[in-house]
Each structure stands twice: as structure tokens, then as C-alpha cells.
Amino acid sequence: MCFCYLLNESLYIPQLLWGFIQSNAPTLSVIVTTLAVIVALLTPWLVNWLNNKPKKSELELENRSIVNQNGYLNGRLIIKNNGRFIARSVEIFIESIKFNGEIRENFFPVPLRWTHKNTAIRDIYPHQTAYLDLFVRERNDVKEYSLNIEAGYGIPSLSGLDCYGKSELFLRFYQESGQVEESVVEIDLNGPNDPKIKIIYFKVVK
After folding, report:
1. Which residues, in sequence order, are bridge partners of residue 114?
2. What are the φ and ψ backbone dihedral angles of 168, each rounded to 5 degrees?
3. Given the DSSP bridges, would you call strands 145-147 and 164-174 parallel, antiparallel or unpaired?
4. How does pLDDT run across 152-185, given as a tens digit for each residue?
5. Could you tell me the residue ranges of all domains in the chain?
6. Which CATH code for domain 59-204?
7. How many Å apart are CA 135 and CA 169, to the nearest integer?
């Protein structure tokens, strides 16, 4: 008895739905047509929005290194793109410098050079590691440290580094997409002793 009741009910429900569709066919047709028009209008806008959405990279300061190469001592930052998108036209500026807690006067923002690139701008592909030269000195010249900047090299107020004491470099990372990161890097120099590099912080600004 119970089984027959359930069977009758299961047959009755589709008939009821079919009856509803038939009796409201014009209204349902208008609704379906309206939805189709809305989807057709929104699709190009959605595709355009997705294509123009900023494709952000994920840069990270992995480490720092001191390299003795061809008679020169190079202080470098090791930068990796951990994201899925290319970091395009990355340019890193020294915005300001502090030496032993005092802001350097007569300094203006200048870009640093990428290692082995001899240029201030480069792309960093997903999962690629790049090297940025911070400073250089001739191995036997403990008095002459220079920031490896693209413009103003040789001008003491811009590229010079005091060979005794701590300098803090305030860095900004710029990309073609408008993405910006900033970092503070400390360079500790002590004459003939090997220099030290310390990353104070690194963060995304926008």
C-alpha cells in the first residue's frame, strides 16, 4: 500500500511540473530571454575586467650576499618572484639614506643596477631569482665603498658610503603594473673587515 502511494506520488510530481510549465510558458519564455540578454551584455564586460585586472607578482627578499668577484667586493640582495605573473619593468630606487641615525643631506632618489645587467630595469619571471647590486668596492681599497647606482655614480652625496658605521637604505620597488613594495636594508661597514647586510623589513605598499 505504502509503495503504491509513493509510486503514484512520484508520477504525479512530474505531471504537476509539466502542467505548470505549460500554463506559464509565455512568462517563462520572457524570463529566459531576459536572462540570456543580461548574460550576453555582461560577458564582454566581465572578460574585459578580468583581462585588465592587475596581475600582481609576489616579490620576496630571499637573502643577501657578499661576493668577491674579479677583484671587487659586491654587496647584493637576492630577490625572487614567488607569484604566478611576471614582475614587469622592476626598478628599485634608493629613496633616502640614514648614516648612524642621521638623514643624508643633498641626496635625491636614484635607481640601483641589477647584477650583470648594467641597467636599472628588468623583468622577473615567476619563480625566477634575480640579484641586485647594492654597493661595490675594490677588494684592497677599504676606504672606497660606492653604491651601485644607475645615475650619479661618483658623486659623493649620492653614491658614496662611509667605510665605518651603519647606513640604512630606504628602498622602493616599482613595477609596470603600479605595484609598489618598500624595504629598509642596513649596511654595516667596519673598514678592513667584511661588510654586513641586514634586511630590516620588506612589505607591499600597494
Report:
1. 132
2. -105, 125
3. unpaired
4. 888 888 998 888 899 999 999 999 999 999 999 9
5. 2-52, 59-204
6. 2.60.40.10
7. 11
Name the DSSP class of 171.
Answer: E
Query: How many alpha carbons fall within 13 Å on the CB side of residue 134?
Result: 28
Longest dimension (CA), the chain: 103
Query: pLDDT for 43-100, tens place per residue?
Result: 665 556 445 556 789 999 988 888 887 778 889 999 999 999 999 999 999 999 999 8
Interatomic CA distance for residues 115 and 106, integer angstroms: 27
Residue written as cell 661588510? 195
Predicted confidence at residue 7, as pLDDT, reads 42
Confidence bin at 193 (pLDDT 50/70/90): confident
- Average pLDDT of the chain, as a whole number: 82
Q: How far apart are the first and last CA of the chain?
A: 70
131-159 burial, b if ≥16 CB within 10 A, otherwise e?
ebbbbbbeeeebeebbbbbbeeeeeeebb
Which candidate, 110, 86, 66, places its Cα nearest to that of 198? 66
Give the residue from 134, 159, 116 showing the smallest Cα distance to 73.
Answer: 134
